[in-house]
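Weekly puzzle thread! Below is a chain. First person to post its structure in token form gets bragging rights.
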Amino acid sequence: MSRTKRSSKALEQAERRVAGLKTIDENLDLGAGLTVVAYDTDINGLRDKLNEYNRTLALLDEKLNALEASEKAVKDKSVRMLNGVAAKYGKDSSEYELAGGVRTSERKKSARKQQPSHTA
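Winning reply:
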């Protein structure tokens, strides 16, 4: 399951606003560092960070898929190894127990529930 990529309402709003400001004047300067050029630079910086974030999520998804595939392969091999020990030494052997299995003779027997008798 891939992670949800992020969008930014602030970025979308800023892009619309800078487009409107540019129609007023490409070099609009409102003083105190409030210029269209500086605003556009900040918007581009935010866009770059958002794109980098979304690329990182995609890379993480790829790494998670590789990790899960590796886990599945090791889990499968673990089962096969235990079955191999059972085939070679038997399920009631100490070797089977050393490999992580539960010896047949050491398994708990489940107690059967008695059916209630029907009296009329």
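Puzzle host: Confirmed. Bonus trivia for everyone else. Residues 83 and 91 are 9 Å apart (CA to CA).
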